[in-house]
């Protein structure tokens, strides 16, 4: 298989689970349009317990029960693989830019990070030094990141398998990207085991909810998540290079090369989008582009502002960090999407801040002891506030941009 635990030197736990799980069997029956949701993760009662120091639910010793799915948690995706096969069928689509795909395949095959993800003895000791509230938030950060990386692994792995016959070059690129994501997820899961709270990724594969997105939406969402991932990792890395006193755990030292994987993945989706001009060249494409940009930016802004103490523990200002990441991701995205929101207006941030304050109220209601009917009553005006601000963001100023004729993306500078 493309994934090899030995490459990363870090992924024995992930390797074990991946071998135990069979993504073909897991994904194939769930690929119909209506099969987007499966049952929630159930913890076997006989093995369940609590991590007393941090209050996490445990599946068994050293293995954390995955957090419950919410609107803001990372998702696992599935798509219409038949449509993907059609789209990249070389006989039916002779004009596909195969030269560009072959050049990309050669770059992915070079495997720049083959020896990058090797742990050292400082990890475990550094984890022991993270205590109290930051420890809990740290584990949550690792879990969210690991789940997001693993989600990429599952989707790319399946695409690599399904496109093998119709377009071996594109299929191989997906398989090599799944190799990268498996390394990333494995590295993060190993980091979680430093905190005695690893995830059972095989169990998660079989039991987590899968969200169905048709290929067009997979392209927008995945392009954005790769590029925003790039900007998050590189921004944290650069910050910690400038402020080494906040380097509390060695994971972040790996982010510089790591984020280049994400950047390459994003560039591949950029090439895929350009090969499908119908997703870039009309008013519907513009609306969907705007919608997906806003969904990704709002989700990150709300998520990170729920965990400001994590970023503060790294010496970062959450708002500044998030704004920088959103603005840079938006500039990058403007090179390919036909339209993006204008993130550099005071109005845009006014609505984003309003969402933060509404979210805080929502969390406070959830945590209160009020009866359910009263909570529902209190939530109604908050949901109305969410709708109002989201609508205002959607109808806000936009930037007309992108072109599928644009030059390949230049190297990104920070
Ligand atoms: Fe990744
Ligand atoms: Fe990636």
UniProtKB/TrEMBL annotation:
InterPro entries: AcsF, Ferritin-like_SF, Rr_diiron-bd_dom. GO terms for molecular function: magnesium-protoporphyrin IX monomethyl ester (oxidative) cyclase activity; metal ion binding. Pathway: Porphyrin-containing compound metabolism; chlorophyll biosynthesis. Keywords: Chlorophyll biosynthesis, Iron, Metal-binding, NADP, Oxidoreductase, Photosynthesis. It catalyses: Mg-protoporphyrin IX 13-monomethyl ester + 3 NADPH + 3 O2 + 2 H(+) = 3,8-divinyl protochlorophyllide a + 3 NADP(+) + 5 H2O. Signal peptide: none annotated. Residues 140-273 form the Rubrerythrin diiron-binding domain. Pfam families: Rubrerythrin (PF02915). Its cofactor is Fe cation. GO terms for cellular component: chloroplast thylakoid membrane. GO terms for biological process: chlorophyll biosynthetic process; photosynthesis. The keyword Metal-binding applies. Its EC number is 1.14.13.81. Belongs to the AcsF family. This is magnesium-protoporphyrin IX monomethyl ester (oxidative) cyclase. It comes from Apatococcus lobatus. The lineage of its organism: Eukaryota, Viridiplantae, Chlorophyta, core chlorophytes, Trebouxiophyceae.
